[in-house]
Amino acid sequence: METIRKAFRHLEDSMQRHDRMRCVISYESFIARLVENPDLILRNVFQVFHDMIHAYVGDGEDEYPDDPESIRFVHYDCTRLFVEGTDHPFFADRLFANRLIHQVEALRRGAQQNKIYIFDGPPGCGKSTFLNNLLMKFEQFANTDEGMRYETLWRLDRRAIGGAGNGDIHPFVNRILHLMQEAPNGRMPFDFKTQTNDLEDPSGKLPPDIHLMDEPPVALEEAIEVPCPSHDHPILILPKEFRRAFFDELFENDEFKYRLYTEKEYDWVFRETACTICQSLYEALLEKLGSPLKVFGMVFARPYRFSRRMGEGISVFNPGDKPMRQTILTNPILQSRINAILRDSNRVRYLYSQYARTNNGIYALMDIKGHNVERLIELHNIISEEVHKVEDIEENVHSLFLALMNPEDRKNIEDIQSFSDRIESVNIPYVLDLKTEVAIYRNIFGKHIDASFLPRVLHNFARVIISTRLKTRSEALMEWIENPQRYSSYCDENLMLLKMEIYAGHIPNWLTDEDRKRFTAKRRRRIIAESESEGNQGLSGRDSIKIFNEFYSFAAREGRLINMAALSHFFTRIRPDLLRSIPAGFLESLQRLYNYTVLQEVKEALYDYNEEAISRNIQNYLFAVNFEIGAIERCRFTGDRLEITEDYLVSQENVLIGEGATPEKRNRFRSDVQKEYAAKTLTVEMMQEGKAITETKLYKDLYERAVYNLKEKALDPLLKSEAFRMAIKDFGTTAFNNYDARIKADVQSVIENLGRKFQYSQLGAKEVCMYVIDNDIARKFSAS
User: Which stretches are transmembrane (predicted)?
Assistant: First the structure.
């Protein structure tokens, strides 16, 4: 029992500390907190929504930070936002994540606040999961100290105002109050009409000014609390025409004050007004008290608590949810208290609508069909004018409006022409990023599935699925790659495999230097823009999960890894019906790309050169090209004594541009290197920027060339040594012990390098080496 009591005491202490941080504070204390942390306190829903996304997602990772043509198409890790802590994870691919972040950045800038944001995508793309997870994380964030905002709360002090006290209440009301005090829990277990008959006058009427209500009047306390039903930010109670002067006195001339006055995101601070209830309370109190300071003494601030289930701050409507019968909401008990304390039944009318409950919050529609079409139409004037009529009162509505829509439901809004400029569509297609597609399989079937595949085969399954979702022809790619045929050994004729790499944020290393240079920012934007019209057809997310389950059940076997042969067999023999959805020739091109990729991996594993010696040779070469043939010089970078002959330069160029280069190509290469060294490397990068020779762009380019060509030579054992091939086949068997020590060491090194560099298991490393050998992959690519 003592342990239980201790646990409850700890819980109580924790909750009390939390509540103290989020308790009601005076207006003066609120202003003090505003001065202390203006970025956190002075936010509307759009700014908090931005901060929530940024808190969960971060800044993103640019894999090519030094790329001058970058368009900031970066990797945003949305795991914390859409996956962690959710019942049904949503996996945002790179394209959608960038689309969402860019939209959120625009929201913070305040550029598009009078719009409804419709997330448009085909069935099975995960729209509902996306929105549910997004709203859940927003609710969690908004109820933390980091995401908290304040709302207005009035505490009307009867003594300060001079309103009616209990002694001034009509005898009839006193009688009711007395009966309520005697009743259990303050409720009246009797018929209200019967118990009040003795108070009626001889004519049978109630005393003057007494009206029967659903519940009897409530006694006046020393102070009554009047919450703002519209969740107004407390700063809005300041009269709009005096806010700028108030902030001039409040803030120093610092960075925040400059942003407050100049940036669009803070435009709402000077533009918006308090709700009609708060404004009428302010005016009525100012008339009675005669001093704004006394009025502000009755204004308090409390945390804006969000609850989707209670409809506070977040409201979500499904198509089948019927409209509310009572569109105008009020609080008769509170209205009677306000009337009594102000002695005026008409000055402050406590009326509001359902939209007030999500003011400065989120109002969401799940699918634009059924009753949600009516709700969307009703939002038209609210979004454009930011007001809603409640009887003869105008109610402010500054909410973030979100909706989901299937493509076939677009007809429901096409007839509303005036609404078109108020709709901001955000496309949620089927996943087009192969890394995200694989992440979905791992989430559904478990991360252990990787152990059943040879590296790259699982991703190739994802490529097949994604190929059904892309358009076959890309005008942007065809304009960029002038000669697609040059890549026929490892890419399809429509360059869909190239597009998949770009959509995943990867620039393939098999592109030529010429095409990499032509990959400008303008071309990148055109390619990424094509994704807006893709992913609305083909195999859906649900379809891909079913197909993968069937493939995995067919191909997974004990002691054998799933390879490309199994993948090809599945789509051509087990499920040939799927070939209608897969572009013609795509599977063959995917096989060629796989062959090329694993060959590069084997090259890398075979490559075993002294990289320090490579670096030294390149530095010597860069120094030597600046002198005439026959000169003898000491290299300023390495200290080596160089005899600069034609044979020496040719020996270095054999590594840099290949042994088969013609004399003309050698002379042109040598001249280009010398010119760039003199014009940029030495004079700009080294002398002006203070870089070492090994930090310059020219050195790095030559180093990459040298390593690439040396790796090509590393294939010689596979091409020329039959013993080396047999040793790989016998690796892991007793026959492997019969080979000489040098071959065994080389084979052991290849197997270990494949595991260390490319995450192959020992079985996988052996299988991929045997695959390259048995299919003569090296000779095929050397011949091409």
Answer: none
Of residues 362, 355, 366, the one with CA closest to residue 401:
362
CA distance 360 to 233: 8
> Hey, what are 633's tokens?
């010089």
DSSP string, 108-119: HTTTT-SSEEEE
Compute φ and ψ for 93, nearest 5 degrees.
-75, 175
Q: What are phi and psi of 605, to 5 degrees?
A: -70, -35
State the alpha helices, DSSP H only, in 22-144. Answer: 27-36, 38-41, 45-57, 79-82, 94-108, 127-142
Asked if the structure places residue 332 within a domain, the reply is: no
In a shared domain, residues 578 and 618: no
CB 199 within 8 A of CB 178: no
H or E stretch covering 151? strand 150-157
Amino acid at 582: I
Retrieve residue 25's tokens.
Answer: 């504070």
Rounded Cα distance, 419 and 377, in Å: 9
pLDDT score at 188: 44
In the listed set 116, 142, 168, which residue is the last one of a domain according to the structure? 142
Separation of alpha carbons 743 and 724, rounded Å: 6
What amino acid is encoded at 700 in this protein? Answer: K
Per-residue 3-state assignment (H helix, E strand, C coil) for 152-190: EEEEEEHHHHCCCCHHHCCHHHHHHHHHHHHCHHHCCCC
Residue 137 belongs to a domain: yes
Number of domains in the chain: 4
Domain boundary among 606, 631, 657: 606
* Domain contains 257: no
Shared domain for 555 and 624, answered yes or no, is no
- The per-residue pLDDT of the chain, averaged, comes to 87
The dihedral built from the CA positions of residue 348, 349, 355 and 361, taken in this order, carries a sign that is: positive
Task: Give a yes or no: residue 570 inside a domain.
Answer: yes
For residue 482, give its domain range: 434-606
- Based on the fold, state whether residues 486 and 628 are members of the same structural domain: no
Residue-wise pLDDT for 726-773, tens only, equals: 888 888 888 999 988 888 888 898 999 999 999 999 999 999 988 988
Looking at the fold, whether 537 and 648 belong to one and the same domain comes out as no
14: confidence class by pLDDT, cuts 50, 70, 90: low
Rounded-to-integer distance, Cα 551 and Cα 538, Å = 18
